[in-house]
Amino acid sequence: MSRVTVADAMPETCAVTTRGLSKRYDDEVALDAVDLQVPDGAVFVLLGANGAGKSTALKLLLNLERADSGVAEVFGLDTGRHGPQVRAQVGYVPERHDAGYPWMTCGRLLQHVAAYYPAWDHGYAEQLISALDVRRERRIGGLSKGDTRRLQLVLALAHRPPLLLLDEPTDGLDPIVRKRVLALLAEHLADSPTTVLITTHHIHEVESLADHVGVLRAGRLVAQMTRDALQRTVRRYRIELPDGWEPPRDLVVASPRAGRATREVQWTVVGEEREVTDRLTGSGARVREVTSLALEEAALALLPDDGAR
Amino acid sequence: MLVNLDPTDARPLYLQIMDEVRRALVVGTLRAEDPVPSVRELAAELVVNPRTVSQAYRELEREGVLYVRRGQGTFVASGARGDRGEQLALARAVAKRALLDARRNGLGVDELVMTIREVAADEDTATGPSVPALNQSENE
Fold first, then answer.
1. ipTM > 0.90, yes or no
2. Which is deepest, A123, A224, A292, B26, by most CB within 10 Å?
């Protein structure tokens, strides 16, 4: 599928910009010439299957790994050259749940991290610790996945960084805690101006918080646009077909679902509604119904359904 | 005020919030000088970016539906109430949804309208009219 871009009025400043960012691990392409733009103040959800390159993108932004080529900038700082300055401005929830320091207690790690950030907000940290039920006396090595996530979220949020990079932040959380975390995030954004880049393969888990969506497929960023543009661009069409009908060429059909016996098909098509309708009508088909899709369905239309990365 | 967002609704979230506020005015659950939830509260409740709520409030302020009292919060303007225009806009939205559903089921407009009247009449004889009618001033 060709790259989908929608010329939405992009705001002038971006918290995160990458140009031609590429990374390989041996023979495997993790990121392939990615031009990512995360506008200031956005909640940008980077969607992709497992192994699509989402975690690699975040690690490159933090200079935890080196890009093979291309540039990554956070607040205008080249992350390859200013790693420590960039990391000081970022709250990061890593993909992995084994946060290191298995012998330390949660309380000790909190102290340790607090000392590292001058902006650490002790009062806020206390609120988060109690809201997320983090137990100070417990040893990190003995934490469950969900426990670790909650601790990692406190560590990421308590210094109120201008950028949050959250790698599958709701992974391992039960639905009730997940809801609480998302509400906490919304409050956090209301209290301190923050840009958020969230990676996930379950877009419904971050629900309505997303206002920008990017789609990574096998290391390529195949789409990035506002939530509104995505829902406008991907729609489901119920089409009545004449006998011997040929689909118009270049029609980006994400998910054909044929009802051959009834001469009616239901397709999810990528493109502006008027244009798609005109082309279908021009080809002799009759568009019976156009429906909009929930964000997740619209985003999934941009991912392959064959399980390929 | 209860605000519900429909995840399958492709309209921008800030428009959905605006419509919910207008709906609350029309049905009377929100009245002049009532406070509306803070941006922070509503954002946390709906789990949306607070900027989305701000945008909705800002638009409603521009339309004269809401106003900000410094340091106290956002309130419903005294002139704001569910007027005829808003009522009609809501009715149109309901009609569109019904039509869409009807077409999907192979029903025509006449069939739909007639059946709505029949069902409403049945319900009225069973329980008496409970919902304020929309057709108080049909001709305008």
1. no
2. A224
